[in-house]
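User: What would this chain look like folded?
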Amino acid sequence: MPYIIGIVSALAISVYATALQLDRDRAFYPTVLNVIALLYILFAAIGGASGRVFVIESVIGGVFIVAATVGFRGSLWLVAAGLAAHGIQDFFHGSIVANPGVPVWWPAFCGAYDVAAAGYLAWRLTRDSVRPASVAVGG
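Assistant: Here's the prediction, encoded as structure tokens.
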């Protein structure tokens, strides 16, 4: 059930963002990836994890934050790849780090969400619905 809920949630949020034209701006999906990257750190805080767990989760999250940043400034294809990679990481997360705050259902939900969101963004990029090319940032 977490897989179904993750897929349906990703598609509902993505279609909603498209309907409101929130995702016509290249910042939408990088922001989603940034938030997703921080959730395991939040779970570590909720679960009272050790400093070692915080460091591991921060390094993992940092990789995805870099992908979101570079993808925002360059190609949104990197953001789609980052979302997909995070989804794959969700399925292996428990074998990488034992984070006591992660709900049992979370990896399945988040993995399905991430992969579905990546697929939707890739679909939008192939339709030229979202500006994939680099844009000047900050003047």
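Confidence is low (pLDDT under 50) at residues 132-137. If you want, I can go into more detail on any region.
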